[in-house]
Design a protein that fits this description.
eight-stranded mixed sheet, alpha+beta, binds zinc ion, six-stranded mixed sheet, 16 helices, 605 residues, 30 strands
Length: 605
């Protein structure tokens, strides 16, 4: 998962956390089912009502109760979504007769068959959640995840094969990572794969190209959202990042790969959700054509190895009925984000300075947040902490990856690297059909570093909350940190983008915005002449006003109770200490070799 927001003002996200785990599950076991088939129906008529119909048909051997559950979450999106909330018109029938049913917990239905034979269960699912873990429709388009629509029998494991048939309008397209098994029909050998392959159905743009010896597809909704040079740029990015990611593991883990991308003005920022042979991006139009996109692709595609296959033991196998916390999410997400930056520099999308800027940004993000241990942040993400540290394991985990990479390369005289750690664990844990443990991770890191102990590093910087030892580690790669003090113009508001615009969620007391009369709930129209619709308005505002005197007038146009009004704020500055990563011209030959190896993805032969 990756969430990126283009707004640089503090963005306060209103997360609704649903209680979960309050209902014991697992004791109940469904009657055995065979010959399981699913059908998904989405036509123009469905699109109008924003509902998709899901049907499950199976064979039972008698009258024992059938217990069917819907997942509470989609792996990769580490939050409880309770997809059963979106279900309506649930029914069950056998030989034309409706069957009695009730619920035994919030997302488990109990159906009572009348005897041996075929049972069909049907429900409608509300398709109005623009979320890459959920289901969303427009009159001519549907995104769905299997976790939303495909019931599983309780207590029977997840190894059962099944098929999916999609009923839709003639001429509408279907894209999914599932294997084709007939006209509009797809097959999965187990439930984990079934629900890991989301679908695009309807009218959208689609093309494909061969990269690293396999077909990659790029599907974009709405039609026309990514065309001409913008589409060429996406393909260029994919052709640059995929091969260098493949090189880390020396193998392509998919037969085909699909990039499924939705652009919609109701979405603020951008977000990607990874799967074993596809990923789903949801973007605001302002994200298109920005450097955020290649970074998002590189992150999600690296997940095809790191987390979809090489996965912490706590997440192996996935369970769908409750949270699945792990202290190692910083490896799955943060290290993936480190490799996204590496893929960009190794693939030539950014130069070394671009890589240093990406890294410096992460350092600044971490510096501005309360000291938080990576293991704690990994566990806490499920409850969305509201002190700003909800996603700190992305930038901080990425920086931990950089430090480990440098220390491994230094200790091994650049004969091995973090790449070796990733490849070794992929070939041992994943290829043995299991997850990896914390002990295994650190033993593999230590082995790559020629036996160097990481116990102290672990207890101070991973389990502990001490600031990272940049000044000790960066010079080993010929790098150093410059700390700049800058004056940044600040209004003192937090804002949140939603489908209707950018809204003020908080006004800091005694701030410039408070003095001007900005109120929570105001919709921001423009600040200092820059439209709030422009995703880069905060950058533009800061650069225009950086050299103006304290107290200069800043027009702030807001919409309140339906009417626009212009308020006048007085410019105020805050002092920020930023970190800038630089090459040290006096670096030793060894340190320069470490740096070049890291940037190019090479080690000494
Ligand atoms: Zn991710």
């Amino acid at each position: 998962m990756m969430r990126k927001f283009s707004l640089l003002l503090p963005v306060v996200l209103g997360a609704i956390v649903s209680p979960s785990g309050a209902f014991a599950q697992g004791a109940a076991t469904s009657a055995p089912l065979t010959n399981i088939r699913y059908e998904v129906t989405f036509t123009r008529a469905n699109g109008v009502h924003r509902r998709v119909t899901s049907t499950m048909t199976f064979t039972v051997g008698g009258t024992d109760a059938v217990l069917l559950s819907l997942p509470k979450w989609t792996p990769g999106a580490y939050e409880i979504d309770n997809f059963a909330r979106e279900v309506s018109n649930f029914s069950a029938e056998q030989s034309g007769n409706s069957l009695a049913w009730d619920k035994i917990d919030p997302d488990t239905w109990r159906i009572r068959p009348r005897g041996v034979g075929e049972v069909t269960v049907r429900f409608d699912y509300l398709a109005d959640s623009l979320d890459n873990a959920n289901t969303w429709s427009r009159p001519d388009f549907l995104l769905f995840n299997g976790t939303n629509l495909f019931l599983y029998p309780e207590g029977r494991g997840f190894d059962f094969p099944s098929s999916v048939t999609v009923n839709t309008e003639a001429g509408w397209k279907i894209v999914t990572g599932m294997s084709p098994a007939g006209a509009h029909r797809y097959a999965a050998s187990n439930y984990h794969d079934l629900v890991d392959m989301p679908f695009f159905v309807g009218q959208f743009d689609l093309d494909s190209a061969q990269i690293s010896g396999t077909w990659v597809r790029f599907a974009t909704y709405p039609s026309g959202s990514v065309t001409g040079p913008a589409r060429v740029a996406v393909w260029d990015a994919l052709k640059r990042v995929i091969p260098v990611e493949v090189k880390v593991f020396n193998e392509v883990p998919w037969n085909t790969y699909s990039v499924l991308q939705i652009t919609d003005p109701s979405y603020g920022g951008g977000s990607g959700l990874e799967h074993q042979n596809s990923h789903v991006d949801v973007l605001s139009p302002g994200m298109l054509g920005t450097p955020v996109l290649p970074s998002l692709y590189a992150h999600e595609i690296f997940h095809a190895w790191n987390v979809k296959r090489l996965r912490p033991a706590d997440l192996w196998p996935y369970r769908y009925d409750e949270e699945q916390p792990t202290p190692l999410l910083w490896i799955s997400e943060g290290i993936t984000d480190y490799y996204a930056d590496l893929a960009e520099v190794r693939g030539g999308l950014v130069d070394a300075n671009g890589f240093y800027m990406l890294t410096s940004d992460k350092m600044s993000q971490v510096d501005e947040l309360p000291p938080t241990a990576l293991e704690d942040a990994s566990l806490s993400t499920w409850i969305h902490p509201r002190d700003g540290t909800e996603y700190i394991y992305y930038p901080k985990g990425s920086l931990a990856g950089l430090l480990l990479d440098i220390m491994i390369r230094d200790a091994s005289d650049n004969h091995s690297s973090l790449d070796d750690v990733m490849r070794t664990l992929f070939n041992t844990a994943y290829k043995s059909d299991r997850g990896f443990t914390s002990d295994e991770w650190w033993a593999t890191v230590s082995k790559a570093a020629k036996g160097k102990s990481f116990g102290d590093f672990y207890s101070r910087y991973i389990d502990g909350r001490e600031p990272f030892p940049y000044d000790k580690v960066l010079p080993l790669a010929g790098l150093r940190l410059a700390r700049d003090t800058t004056r940044v113009p600040q209004l003192g508001i937090a804002s949140l983008q939603d489908s209707t615009g950018l809204h003020v969620t908080e006004v800091i007391p005694e701030s410039s915005a408070a003095a001007a009369g900005v109120q929570p709930g105001d919709q921001l129209i423009s600040v200092g002449g820059f439209s709030a619709d422009d995703p880069n308005w905060t950058d533009k505002f800061r650069s225009r006003y950086a050299r103006q005197p304290e107290g200069a007038e800043v027009p702030v146009v807001v919409r309140r109770n339906g009417a626009e009004q212009t308020l006048t704020a007085r410019l105020r500055f805050v002092t920020r200490v930023g970190s800038r990563l630089l090459e040290d011209p006096r670096a030793s030959t060894k340190a320069r070799r470490v740096r070049e190896g890291l940037l190019r993805g090479t080690t000494q032969p």
